[in-house]
Prior knowledge:
alpha/beta
Amino acid sequence: MQKINEVRAYTPSRFNKVLIVGLGQLGLPVAKYVKERGFDTYGYDISTKAMERAEKVAGIKKVVDSTFNSSDLNDFDVYIITVSTHRPDDMFSPQTDGLLSVVEKISREAKKNGALVSIESTIPKGTSKKVFEMLSHRLHVVHAPHIDGML
């Protein structure tokens, strides 16, 4: 009976502050969707044009380079990664260097244990496990790839 009471007493975490990393073809629609659902939505992209477009088109708050490379990253509840994971010259050849670089920054700067890292890019088998290990098992990791037209 004690376990039933423990389950009833469980209160799920509230996710409020969301960072979308990669505001291109996939990231911008994701950011718009998240913002429309009422979350405090921020975006980062290596392209300043992409960030300006996200701010103008969807009201996404910009995370500037200095923030993306600092301890200010520790304030987010959810990190949604939508960076390209294929070679520019061959979309069928995986290239996860950019994704792993983002994860390394999150691992170093995110102090909020239990935050969620959602990888929405297409990734090779075993990448989610590698990401979870890079995050020292402190953050939750989910792989939620998108199929064209599904968002």
